[in-house]
Amino acid sequence: xxxxxxxxxxxxxxxxxxxxxxxxxxxxxxxxxxxxxxxxxxxxxxxxxxxxxxxxxxxxxxxxxxxxxxxxxxxxxxxxxxxxxxxxxxxxxxxxxxxxxxxxxxxxxxxxxxxxxxxxxxxxxxxxxxxxxxxxxxxxxxxxxxxxxxxxxxxxxxxxxxxxxxxxxxxxxxxxxxxxxxxxxxxxxxxxxxxxxxxxxxxxxxxxxxxxxxxxxxxxxxxxxxxxxxxxxxxxxxxxxxxxxxxxxxxxxxxxxx
Length: 258
Known about the structure:
Elements: H1 8-18, H2 27-34, E1 44-48, H3 54-61, E2 67-72, H4 75-87, E3 94-98, E4 111-117, H5 126-136, E5 137-147, H6 158-167, H7 176-186, E6 189-195, H8 197-212, H9 216-223, H10 225-244, E7 250-255
Parallel strand pairs: 1-2, 1-4, 2-3, 4-5
Antiparallel strand pairs: 5-7, 6-7
């Protein structure tokens, strides 16, 4: 049985930081940056790692996507996403599918855009991810994602390894060079990687100050003292690897040739 990484308490906590329905840094504003220059209106979108559904709802309600298919591997987040979609009365334009890890169970040349917000970090084989994204895109289709990267190839530093252990979320980070090679080998062109380390280092430092600050008691009451203590530990290690530059979130954009 697959280990549950995002239970209801984790989902609730992350939404408290990043906004209702968002499970990754920057929330709505960062999604807007990821899709800069990408034509969403009237398009068929695949959302890889759709989480609790806010990105899918945003792409339809504010960017007029014709249809979004959100996929994830955990029942808890898919249930949260399905509920969010239903509440937004968008279930006629958004499908949420719980899938098994591995090749995408989707037809080739189906989607105009493959989108993902900080979810591919859980996929260890970036080359296969790129091949699958390329396969399901229509000719001329666009890839637009953000992901958490490591600044170099090879083993992580002891500081980074310590942070990844603390997270305990099955992180599989690749370097910008490895990501670019995976996309290029899959057949993508117009590959663009944008380093977001400077932005997130500042954001994470503010989040850590908030976790340590006067709201900590209330957070502990809502989520449990042990849980919040562990989040403070994680964020302390996170800030360290962001400040060193080894942890370097990126935006990744590319296009399938026509």
